[in-house]
Each structure stands twice: as C-alpha cells, then as structure tokens.
Amino acid sequence: MEGDEPQDDGSDCLLSFADVCKDYGEDGSALRGMNLDIHAGEFLTLLGPSGGGKSTALMMLAGFDTPTSGDILYKGQSIANTPAHRRNFGVVFQTRALFPHLTALQNVAYPLRMRGVPRAEATKRAREALARVHLAPLVGKRPARLAAGEQQRVALARIMVFEPDVIIMDEPLASLDMDLAIRMEEEIRQIHENLGNTVVYATQDHTEAIALSDRIAIINAGAVQQTGTPEALYEEPQNAYTARFMGETNMLQGTVTSYDEPSCQVTLDTGEEVTATAINVSGAGARTRLSVRPERLIFNPDEMQVPNRYKAKVLSMDFRGDHTVVHLRLASETLLEAKIPNAQAENGFGTESVIEIGWRSEHCRALDPPT
Ligand code: ADP
Ligand code: MG
Questions:
Q1: 199: containing domain
Q2: Does the pLDDT at position 74 exceed 50?
C-alpha cells in the first residue's frame, strides 16, 4: 500500500526510513518494512493505534534504538548507528521526564550547559525559551510545584532552547486533560511556525493530527498505510484502514459488478445498487468496501446530480452540540449515519419519518476488500 503518492526527487528530503524492520525474535515485530520521507521544515505526524509501531520508529529516529534491517537516512547519510548524543535532535516524551531537583530554569538551561554554553548565556537563553511558552513567572519552581501542562511546557522549552535540527515528540499531549491538550496544541503549532524546524510527532488522535500536521503518515502493524496532507487522507483515503482512522465513515460491503474508470457499479451485500469511485478495486467480481463520510449524505437529493438515492427511515436524531447525528435504516436493513447542521435537523423530519437520502459517486470510494 506504499507508494500511493508520487515519490519526490529527494531534494528537500531531510529524513528517510528505508525499509526499516524491527524484530523482537519470538516476541514479534514492531516495524515491518517502514518507508517514509520527511521533508525539511515540515510537521509530520505518525498517526496510528497503540502498538502500531510509532514509538519504535521515533526511538530509532532519536538514536535510542537500532533497526534489525533497513536504514535511516539524514540528509542522505545513514544514521542508523549514530548514537543519540551525536544527532542534534530534541525529544519530548509523553511523560515529561524533567529533573526533579532542578528548577524550571535550571532544567531548560541544562542542555545548553551540556553543550558547553557558559552559565550566564545559558541562563539568559533558558529564560527566553521559558518566556516563549508563557512560563516567565514560574522559572524558579521545581517540577513538583508545577501543574502537568506547565511541566510539559518546560519540557518543550528544554528542547527548543538548543535549537535542534529535528524535534521528535511522542504523544506529548496524551497525559493532559482535554482543555489543556487543546491549548498546548496551539502552542506547539505556534512554536513550529515561529522556529520553522522539522517536527516528527506521534499520536493516536486523528483530530490532534489534523490540527497540527502538514502531513500525516498512517501507521499500522509496523508499516505506513498512506501518507498525505490531513485533507487528502480524510477526503481521499486509499484504503479502508485510513478511511476509518481519519474519522467516522459509513463502511458498506459489496461486490463490483462493472468497472469503467473512474467509476464502478457495486451491489451491496444487502442488495442496493451503488455507483462509486473506483479507488482500490481490481475489476468486476472483486469484493470491496465503500466508504461514505456521514457529512456527505444528502437529504432529499436532486435526481440529476445524485445517482445513489434510497428510501430511509429515521431511527434517531442525536444532538451533539455543534451538529446533529441522524441514524438511518434503508429498506434492506442497512444502517447509515448522517451528520447535519442543527438548523437542518430542526425543520422537516423527525424520528420515524421516512425520507429519501443519497450520496454522490465522488463521495463514495470503493476501497480494498473486507478482511
Ligand atoms: P506504539 O508506539 O504505536 O503504541 P510501539 O512502537 O510501542 O507502538 O510498539 C509496537 C509493537 O512492538 C507492539 O506490539 C509492542 O508490544 C512491540 N514492542 C515494543 N517494544 C518491544 C520490546 N522491547 N520487546 C518486544 N516487543 C516490543
Ligand atoms: Mg507509543
């Protein structure tokens, strides 16, 4: 499933994973042939489930672990066996790992002192870095006296202060509550915009990945499933795994009956005929999964523009704050979920009403077969 986007010529490729494998003998494999190019200055996120291989990949990038096979390249040179302290990379982990006996200021000055920067200069730069993450009033406090979000900001300042070529962040917001995580998201994005360094980030949360990233690599079972901008991965998934991981979607199983690029006809297992965009199907007779995002369902569709139209019963309407989710059932028992603006939900139909719904073929992607 690799290589579904054009490979660039490597000119602005800063880091590459080239067929990287990591085996743990009888314990299995964490990475199974990972390929990924990371460009200078971009914010690249590894997005995938727990156990997908994100931390293993980041630890190798940081130099805390080595591949079983394959290579990691930095500016075209192998760094697979270069120790961590000889790469000018900064790493932020989920747990903040600050020195408990040092103040925030001393924690942030530490990497500079390690690099031989004189004390006065190191202190000055540490103060500036802490001011950038809005911690100027707290520089004298030890970690135990700081809230979780403040500790995470100290950890960020401690990385930024030595201006690393690459910043590696492994689920840095996972241990924070939601409000704080959203504010930290904003700060991380600001820091990246201001400093322009390359960030390699890992998360399991697709909304976080979408908000932060220039590009996302979906990683599962130790390999990259698809790489692209947040919008491309959300709107143009190449496989069912990516479609599901990027957000809610209606996934319908069926068989391709005819195939005429770019579209195909599919008969669902529940009987409906659907015109879809052929993305990942081999031809007539192939099994496929159709993905239609809930916000792409159209109520009372226009016959001319919407080839896929069905009678549906409204099972329930769930108010979700900024939108309403409508649960629908077709005559065949197929269940669908639609997302509509509240204003639309307030007039016209309610639970138990029978309406017509539909979707355009360009919003219905025929993906890989069910497993
Ligand atoms: P993620 O960060 O995406 O949650 P990890 O990279 O931590 O995933 O783990 C990927 C897989 O490798 C998991 O199945 C994990 O159990 C396994 N793994 C990680 N480290 C080791 C290890 N030291 N020994 C054996 N298996 C490991
Ligand atoms: Mg991890």
A1: 13-241
A2: yes
